[in-house]
Amino acid sequence: MKVKTILISQPEPKIESSPYFDLEESQRVKIDFIPFIHVEGVSSKDVRHQKIDLTKYTAIILTSRNSVDHFFRIAEEMRFKVPETLKYFCLSEAVAYYLQKYVVYRKRKIYVGKRNFSDLAPFIKKYKNEKFLLPTSDMLKPDIPKTLNKLGIEWKQAVFYKTVVSDLTHLREVYYDILVFFSPSGIKSLFENFPEFEQKETRIAVFGNTTVKAAKDHGLTVNIMAPTPETPSMTMALHKYIKEANKK
Question: In order of start, what are the domains of the chain with their CATH numbers?
Fold first, then answer.
């Protein structure tokens, strides 16, 4: 079956050069962006209940832009003046770059990984005498605490924000040829919003092994997957599939 419509379960990209817009134009398909999940910050009171005292930590591990936003939000709510001596360990360059929204980059000690958490581990190990705080959502990838525990450092996780299922009832009568998911939470949102969902002719595209597993656990057939050696990004995987499907 040909592909004419695609639903991406994430917010629309803010940059005009997004490959999704190129895909839409080159393959003449309609792409909608609707977040299936969203983030809500927890209160400073909830953070205190986790026995978190920001003054006790000398380093912070930031795994996403959300972790950056909510760390500084909580710091402000707690009237905690973030010291210039605080060390920042950022998962990627994108996270480190985003940090500039809150701090003067050149005046801070910032250490940056490449992409995976394991890439950041050597930097953390080098400063093993620091006291590390890991601000996260309520859903943390299990490899992160495993890696930190192996390093033998003093660290603590703090839930500063939560992943919440979005209300998608406005999509009840809407059909898309392809649904694209990037996390198990997106799959969960689909079935919480539409418990009776049947895949039928809808193609399912997923990013990452944990999302593949979540899709299959819910009885879905995965038609498009990324990353692979041939298609390392979702847009590349979609382009390849659409080109073949629409050729028929």
Answer: 5-36+166-245 (3.40.50.10090), 40-163 (3.40.50.10090)
